Amino acid sequence: MAQFQLNILGCGSAIPTARHNPSSQIIDIRDNLFMIDCGEGSQLTMRKMRLKYARLNNIFISHLHGDHCLGLTGLLSSMALQEKSGTLTIHIFEEGADLFDQQLKFFCRDTPYEIKFNIIKPERATIFESNAITVETIPLFHRVPCVGFLFKEKPKLRHLKGDMVKFYEIPVKDIHGIKEGNDFITPQGVLVPNSHLTSDPSPSMSYAYCSDTAFNPQVAESVKGVNTIYHEATYTNEFISIAGKRGHSTSAQAAQIAKMAGAERLILGHFSKRYRDESGLLNEAKTIFDNTILANDGMRIDLL
Amino acid sequence: MAQFQLNILGCGSAIPTARHNPSSQIIDIRDNLFMIDCGEGSQLTMRKMRLKYARLNNIFISHLHGDHCLGLTGLLSSMALQEKSGTLTIHIFEEGADLFDQQLKFFCRDTPYEIKFNIIKPERATIFESNAITVETIPLFHRVPCVGFLFKEKPKLRHLKGDMVKFYEIPVKDIHGIKEGNDFITPQGVLVPNSHLTSDPSPSMSYAYCSDTAFNPQVAESVKGVNTIYHEATYTNEFISIAGKRGHSTSAQAAQIAKMAGAERLILGHFSKRYRDESGLLNEAKTIFDNTILANDGMRIDLL
B47: Cβ–Cβ under 8 A, 6 or more apart, which residues? Predict the structure, then answer.
């Protein structure tokens, strides 16, 4: 079972090509699937990657350009024909909810699951929270209102020191509290500080999805200290002026954001169809931020 | 340049699979493209098959199930980013026009081409006519209102006998009329009958798209004498009862329709995802109608 895994369904830009599907990703957190963007064809890639409809309960739509959301109706109507139950929440701008509501009501009639909209805004906010993670919106700088999504694992439980648990004969009912940081008081009234009983928890990881956006240092500020950042790199620096005009970034700019944010790893995506091979984009970014990789359709990356 | 060519973009059924896209076809008549149905992903297959957006001016939607129309918004928004100009007409039921109008207005803003809806009804009618062809709707028998489309080439011009044209020194201005069947009167007032000057024209071909539909002899009546019929064959006869309940046909039933219609050729399509290999469907049909072939994504067939 994946602990915190990124699955890339598509990393192309506006016009789909034979090489790349339009934008879509799925974060798999212990078999709970979270989809980010849903370009046309995402339902098919999801099936090819054996990501189960039944496990998907949240879809986050960054903005209302077709290449980021036109797979929604198809995916949801196929889910209606399949094993899906429970509630599916679509986190989307209000205008998007209006746009899809009528079609979903028509094409997903008699669904065995409920479709809910959670209206998001182009501002910083926590829009989702579970026991394991929070999801925040990050304002981006595109031609239309657009947000990134910052996935953060919540602090994890401390690791028990097995020998100490044995030594102090700690009863089962106290174990969870000690993992959370409680001290232990022995039947004799002696306080054993938590630090004797546990070691630090595994680090909580984070992942930021930043697409689509023009270069803006505020993006780096918003995701400061993130472990892995996926940043759009539609063009090489040669087209820096077109990138700016269209609300997109170059590969070098994506690398600058990763560097400024102090990220550990950068994944480049949202490639213009002009590139038959993205090695130029990769090389450009690597001169600024070495731990960079290229996204690709069908790729899985453990974010731990 | 293709004279009358069928291009199959997808021939799967409700759930897209790695083997088959959902329904979509393009009839190419001397570089004028006519699309029939537009399942999700059709825009991509169109590009893979090098069928140009600029040449597509008419899209015919058989019915409002997602696998026959959910590629519309994506295709039209990509066309807006590409070289398309002029008018694109979508022939669709009124409910479909309502369903897509809002999305198209949003995702295809500032298009360099005009989008028009031609409202069709589930009845027999001529819905399109050009110099070269007519397109008629054929009532089908599905769970929701559904029509097939009958493409007919108009009668062609008669073939000139070159030696006769020379012998009678027929002026250029009279040539077109003679190809249309006129007699010729010499400057001396002698009538030369058309049959001396021309031979019969090439036959006018026809093509019927019949998907989705339960078996019904009325379909055969509607397409009597058609040259090529594409008929859905979702299942083998083993599932004849499910087919009937779901408004679909078996392969044997498709073959019976082709036989009853006196068609020359049958193309089977709209395959259930349960079949990894459609040879069973083909064999079943061939016992009833020998000149049967299986559709496949990316297939091109000259209908002449």
Answer: A15, A16, A17, A18
**Cross-chain residue pair B78–A66, CB shorter than 8 Å:** yes
Identify whether residues A195 and A230 lie together within a single domain: no
pLDDT tens digits, one per residue of B116-125: 999 999 999 9
Average pLDDT over residues A184-191: 94
The 3-state DSSP class for residue A109 equals coil
Best interface-test mutation with A: which of B17, B20, B24, B40 has the largest number of A CBs within 10 A? B40
Q: What is the pLDDT of residues A8-55, one digit of tens each?
A: 999 999 888 888 999 999 999 999 999 999 999 999 999 999 999 999
Confidence of residue A81 (pLDDT cuts 50, 70, 90): confident
Of the three residues A143, A167, A199, the one that is the final residue of a domain is: A199
Kindly name the residue from A28, A37, A67, A212 that is annotated as catalytic: A67
Tokens 């024209």, located at residue? B201
Residue A207: other Cβ atoms inside 10 A: 27
> Does residue A31 sit in the same domain as residue A56?
yes
DSSP string, A19-75: S--SSEEEEEETTEEEEEEE-TTHHHHHHHTT--GGGEEEEE-----HHHHTTHHHH
**Quick check: A47 and B17 CB within 8 A?**
yes
Work out the minimum CA distance from A298 to partner chain B, whole angstroms: 13
Handedness of CA A248, A251, A253, A256 (dihedral sign): positive
Q: Do B287 and B172 belong together in one domain?
A: no
Q: Are residues B31 and B50 in the same domain?
A: yes
Option in B14, B44, B70 nearest A16 (CB): B44
Euclidean distance between CA atoms A73 and A79, whole angstroms: 10
**B191: domain range?**
159-199
A109: tokens are 């009639």
- E-state strands within chain A: 5-10, 24-29, 32-38, 56-60, 86-93, 113-120, 125-129, 133-139, 147-153, 159-160, 184-185, 191-192, 198-199, 206-210, 228-232, 265-269, 292-294, 300-302
Task: Band the pLDDT of B15: cuts 50, 70, 90.
Answer: confident
**Amino acid B122: pLDDT:** 97
Instruction: Give which of A303, A300, A56, A115 is closest to A203, Cα–Cα.
Output: A303
CB contact (8 A) between residue A74 and residue B40: yes
Name the residue among B41, B74, B106 with its Cβ closest to that of A44. Answer: B41
**Alpha-carbon gap, residue B208 to B27, rounded angstroms:** 11
Annotated active-site positions of B, please?
67
Number of domains in chain A: 2
Residue of A nearest to B72 (CA): A70
Q: Is B76 helix (H, G, I), strand (E, B) or coil?
A: helix
Question: Are B24 and B53 members of one domain?
Answer: yes
Interface test with B, best of A17, A19, A23, A40 (most B CBs within 10 A): A40
- Residue A103 to residue B103, Cβ atoms within 8 A: yes
Residue B1 has pLDDT above 90, yes or no: no
CB A302, CB A12: distance < 8 Å? no
What does the pLDDT look like over A192-212, one tens digit per residue?
Answer: 999 999 999 999 999 999 999
Considering A199, A218, A250, which residue would you say is the last residue of a domain? A199
